[in-house]
Amino acid sequence: MIFPDADLDAAANGIIAGVFAAAGQTCMAGSRVVVHTDVKDALVERLVTRAETIKIGNPLDPETEMGPVATEQQYNTVLSHFASAREEGATFACGGAPVEDLGGWFVQPTVLDDATSSMRAVREEIFGPVTAVMTFDDEDEAVALANDTEFGLAGAVWTKDVHRAHRVAGKLRAGTVWINAYRVVGPQVPFGGFGASGMGRENGVETMRQYTETKAVWVELTGATRDPFTLG
Q1: pLDDT in tens, 131-154
Q2: Which residues neighbour 92 within 8 Å (Cβ) at sequence distance 6 or greater?
Q3: Over 77-114, what HEC string results?
Q4: Average pLDDT in the 111-133 region?
């Protein structure tokens, strides 16, 4: 979620890292961008400029920045999302096709512009290098768009207004919310989701609770002389 006062260069870098790392095949991939109308064009321009320079190739090559999707089935799934996005009226700011000259299951980094919350590419988990850009005009609309999904694993708020950042983070239905960052995790911080993103948390003390059955044991020390009809 990008507000008009956000550092757009930093936000663009966060989005790129959030969705194109591992070719989008991560549970926390930032596959939806909700950006204020006033800065949408400037943000998309930054996304496209960087996406078109991503080095695609063999993951074992140190110069490679993005490899292929993992299986042929997933490759076909990503391509089917391209087809449905076109049919539903999305604009391809960049990408939207296989990388033909490499063979295998390589897909271009893709930015879908003019997306809406009803589109399949927005409703479903693509698990590929694709992000869909939607716009908002006020904070309430932004929160509504962000929460209009069955998933709720992670999200980010980009703004220089710390009060807004905490206010919005508190309203987002997600297990992890970053402010002016993305893909930051640590073994001491609980990680997990809402809705279809799963139950429970891993990492931190929350992990111990997931594997603990709490039992209450009561011990009577006063003997049997107490009135049996008296509680306490």
Answers
A1: 999 999 999 999 999 999 999 999
A2: 82, 85, 86, 110, 111, 112, 113
A3: HHHHHHHHHHHCCCEEEECCCECHHHCCCCECCEEEEC
A4: 96
